[in-house]
Each structure stands twice: as C-alpha cells, then as structure tokens.
Protein: HTH cro/C1-type domain-containing protein
Organism: Hufsiella ginkgonis
Amino acid sequence: MQIHVGERIYQVFKEKGWTIDFFAKRVHMTKRNAQYLFKRDDISIDQLTKISKAMDYDFVQLFLLDDKQKSLAEDPSSVYTRPRKELMTVSLSLTFDQDQSGKLPEMLKRVRMAAEQLGFQLN
C-alpha cells in the first residue's frame, strides 16, 4: 500500500486544528505552496524532515515504511533470509589442586555469567 505523504500531512494538520496560515508559517512556505503540499505524493526527505519538526510528527518514518513495503513486494525473501554467521568452538582445559575442587562450582558459575554478559554461550 503506497502512502500518500501529502494526504497524511493534511490529516495531521487537521488533527492539530491548525489554520493554513499558521501551518505555512511553521513550515516556512507561502500559503499557496502549503496548500499544494497536501496534494503531493512525493516530497524530498529534506522537506519532510523540516515538516516533521514543525509539526512534531515523524513523517520520515512513514516514508521509510513505504519504501520498505515496496522492497518487500519486489523481493519478499529478503525479510526471511539472514546471513549465516560462522560459529567458532573453543575448548578449555582447567588444572587445579584437589583442595580447590570445592570452589569449582562457584568459579564455573562466575565464568558462565561473565561469558553471557559478553554475548558468549557456554555448553
């Protein structure tokens, strides 16, 4: 579904209860250009950013969502495929005195917690 940016700007304009004069001043346009803006379905990102700031509404996000929907329509597989990451496995050997064996569970618990905080997975 294509988003008509000008119509969406007009909807927000109406929701805010603004007059065309007030809107035109906020977006630094003439009254005539402001009225024409509502009919346009293509607006530059620069203009859209300025309008978004003036109206305190993120119209740029609508534009990006529309582009994403278009790309999904052209190639829906792009959403479902992710590049595979190559996994590495590292084995550790631990040497300790028998006297320290009672501390082993606590040490392993701490190592696991530290690894998880860093994004590693221990098996």
